[in-house]
Amino acid sequence: MHYTFNLTNTFGLTSVLTKQQSLEESFVESSISDLSILPSGPVPPNPAELLSSVSMDTFLKQAMELFDHVVFDTPPVLAVADAQILANKCDGVILVVSSGKTEIEEAAKAKEI
């Protein structure tokens, strides 16, 4: 996401979860009105553990109080556990597939997870 909006990824979600930076100072206002972005931040040695942590639950509660909608852009659901962990913490999931590229069987398997 930080590539799309031409943002640095020096600080972000991992910085908030590891208490290196506060939630409020980590969000970046985008060029789109009323859209704030929180980059992922540096890749930690234990992403799944960090996303499963109490810090993540606290982050979600704070983010939902600050914003009308909270959307996560995750790695592919079949590649790593990150998307599965976050899906279990969210109200809904939008599965994005590449038309003509994603195999139907892979999309079906991702949907089941």
UniProtKB/TrEMBL annotation:
- Gene Ontology CC terms: plasma membrane
Q: Which UniProt keywords apply?
A: ATP-binding, Kinase, Nucleotide-binding, Transferase
Q: Matching Gene3D superfamilies, A to Z?
A: P-loop containing nucleotide triphosphate hydrolases
Q: Does the keyword Cytoplasm apply?
A: no
Q: Please give the Gene Ontology molecular function terms for this protein.
A: ATP binding; protein tyrosine kinase activity
| Alphabetized InterPro entries for the sequence | Bact_polysacc_biosynth/exp, P-loop_NTPase, Wzc-like_C
The protein's name is: Tyrosine-protein kinase EpsD
Query: Which NCBIfam families does the entry link to?
Result: eps_fam
Answer whether the UniProt record assigns the keyword Transferase to this protein.
yes
